[in-house]
Amino acid sequence: MRCGSAPPRASPGIRATRGIRATGGPAPAELVAAACPGGAAAAGFADRAAIPQAHLEAVDCVASRDIARGFADGTYGPAQAVRRDQMASFIVRTLQAAGVSLPAPRAQRFVDVAAGSTHDTAIHQLAAAGIVAGGPGGLSADFYGPDQPIRRDQMASFLVRAAGYATGSELTTDQSAGFSDVPAGNVHAANIDTAAAPGLAQGRGDGTYGPAAPDPGGVWPARPGRCVRLIATFAYCDVSGAGATVNRCSGGVGQCSQPRPGR
């Protein structure tokens, strides 16, 4: 697949495995290193002291790659809840940081997303790519729910579809994550298992996932870890920039022992 082209939907699927499973919330050091080789300068957010230490490296990484930009007043807002419209922009910037091109937005699809609004283009780019869909919380399919907090089960589907788009293959797994609170009838259940396999999503210490909870817990601090893991997945699969060939990892996403050169 070429990064500048639409991914081939007929490609064989990538089997997600537990090769670089992350635990405990923060992105592990090897994933930060894969996403931001050589490290990143300290982000100059005015409220940097309020960012939990466990997430500082991930925050610096995503800030250095222009994924997280903060607010107009220079703050990062680590305790701010993240909405579905904001998450669309984070995912678009993450894909772009990995050298993945997205299709141009098509005609206005969601009636509750104002044309020309801050996240309008990102939402409709992801919709055109098949990464996001409408209808959350019982709304009809032509509603995106931009002001709704992003739920953990929705986040799993966003991440799995984004990774699948970038690699040109549907991600799958035959491993059950075993979360006690994710019923088979949850429309995101398969994507939760798939996201958990390479560490794109994690459960809680009590064996639950919290599918209906905002991701994670309604606050931003762990969000950089999600973006870092997504970029690292591409780095381990050698997405080396615009126009570059995407080489799949032997054995599945997260299986390579070292990041590929060029990331």
Textual characterization of the structure:
- α5 crosses α6.
- A two-stranded parallel sheet has the order 1-2.
- The protein is globular.
- The longest helix is centred in the middle third of the chain and has 16 residues.
- With 263 residues, the chain is mainly alpha-helical.
- It has seven helices and two strands.
- Helix content is 29%, strand content 2%.
- Alpha-beta classification: mainly alpha
Strand content: under 5%
What is the spatial order of strands in the main beta sheet?
A: 1-2
What is the CA-based Rg, rounded? 17 Å
Short description:
The protein is mostly helical. 29% of the residues lie in helices and 2% in strands. Mean pLDDT is 74; it is low at 1-25, 216-222 and 235-263.
Labels describing this entry:
disordered C terminus, 263 residues, 2 strands, 7 helices, disordered N terminus
What are the SSEs and their pairings?
Blueprint (H helix, E strand, L loop, with lengths): L13 E2 L13 H7 L20 H9 L19 H14 L22 H9 L23 H16 L3 E2 L16 H8 L26 H14 L27
Parallel strand pairs: 1-2
